[in-house]
């Protein structure tokens, strides 16, 4: 029997409908969302790369494209919480529901619980999708499950299924804001320990992220970019503009290369590298040791051009090195395909950026499915590489120069854990990074005692970027024998 109360695997064994069902009209917006969710589940596709391509291919634009984006990304982000609700409504574990049905159930449940789409439209478009592909029997199952879900709103489902906020606040907030528990625990560790901070951080991470643009220094100002794009100037970076909505790729100013898409937190990291004081003059030798795909290298390259400096941009992946080449064309940037742990470059750099490969837990809101794909072990594999890259940077920088270490992750093992271990091993010292992250005179909340900076979506509106500024150990005095 297959249905919300049956015990057999629901929908397993492929399509039961056959071709007579496939001609049934389905809503193209829901179909494209379903197809992306399926590709994410079956072949680890990235929703934010696949969806724009499919929208173009199928000629879906304007409001329909906006709705498809909202449904696809929203469903992918909320997956764990939606699954718990679906399992409760279906009366069986998620593992017993065929994947292609689950995609549609997730899409339908998302519309019912997290959008203003009417219950009738949410259920009937989902049923149509399944009927067209798999037949009436399985469509009936989806209909029954979604109708059951529609009998309560999200708050009531959370009340029934989430752990108690009193006994298990982290578990409750993880469920409520659709994060795996281990990621909520990481955020709690990196924050001040209060439930209120964790709630604000998870809520901000669960919301649709804003689009930030960067005005290419020397080519256009943020004021001009704001006027041309209809956006507002940023708070932290003098090059940032917040876009109210829409597809930035459609702006002429972006197509012409005068501006790019870049989170303000990433701009802040690149700027900190140029602002941190050196002992002695800046000889203009700058290095970006993990540069692909080149967002920070492009900003640094523009700033290098204005100040007569030159940037070497190291990247281990050839494909990503090509992306740096293209985004930094015409700038004083040399792209080097090499392992940053031993890139074969002569030491003596004034400024070195290590924007380390990391778990990306700080930019989950921009990569909808990522939170459900990551596992705690990812971090264990990355930490040794992060330490080696930072150690290499400290070998390449000159005495009195600066190294900025950054991650788009607030995970303490990837942030202060790496910095503390490398400082202890090499004798490098940290400089207070807080003065270098905001435009002069700005009242800018940087929580914590320093010397590092941890940005957060709920406090700064940026991705949760971490940065530390290091000065290498002074060179040992040369032994002098009379
Ligand atoms: C966080 S991303 C850097 C993002 C970049 N700074 C930007 O703003 O566009 C880390 C980069 O380091 C590269 N990478 C990983 N291992 C590396 C290594 N051993 N040496 C150099 N680059 C490495 C990855 O391929 C990835 O492109």
What is the CATH topology assignment of the largest domain? Rossmann fold
Q: C-alpha Rg, in Å?
A: 25 Å
Shape: globular
Structural class: alpha/beta
Number of beta strands: 12
Q: Provide the number of structural domains.
A: 4
**Arithmetic mean of pLDDT:** 92
Bound compounds: S-adenosylmethionine
Please, what is the CATH homologous superfamily of the largest domain? Vaccinia Virus protein VP39
User: Judging by the overall fold, what is the CATH architecture of the largest domain?
Assistant: 3-Layer(aba) Sandwich
Low-confidence stretches: 1-9, 13-23
Instruction: Give the helix level as a range of percent.
Output: 40-55%
CATH class of the largest domain: Alpha Beta
Helix count from the secondary structure assignment? 20
Strand content: 5-15%
Distance between the termini: 94 Å
The main sheet comes to: 8 strands, mixed
Q: How would you characterize the overall build of this protein?
A:
With 482 residues, this protein is of the alpha/beta class. It folds into 4 domains: 19-154, Orthogonal Bundle (N-utilizing Substance Protein B Homolog, Chain A); 170-205, no CATH class; 208-261; 264-471, Vaccinia Virus protein VP39 (Rossmann fold), CATH 3.40.50.150. It is 47% helix and 12% strand. The protein has helices spanning 28-43, 47-57, 62-77, 79-90, 99-114, 119-134, 136-150, 154-161, 169-176, 181-190, 195-205, 222-229, 252-255, 264-275, 295-307, 318-327, 370-373, 377-396, 416-426, 457-460, and strands spanning 211-215, 232-233, 240-243, 259-261, 285-288, 310-315, 333-337, 349-355, 397-407, 429-431, 453-454, 466-471. Strands 5, 6, 7, 8, 9, 10, 11 and 12 form an 8-stranded mixed beta sheet that branches. Strands 2-3-1-4 form a 4-stranded antiparallel beta sheet. The radius of gyration is 25 Å and the shape is globular. Mean pLDDT is 92; it is low at 1-9 and 13-23. Bound molecules: S-adenosylmethionine.
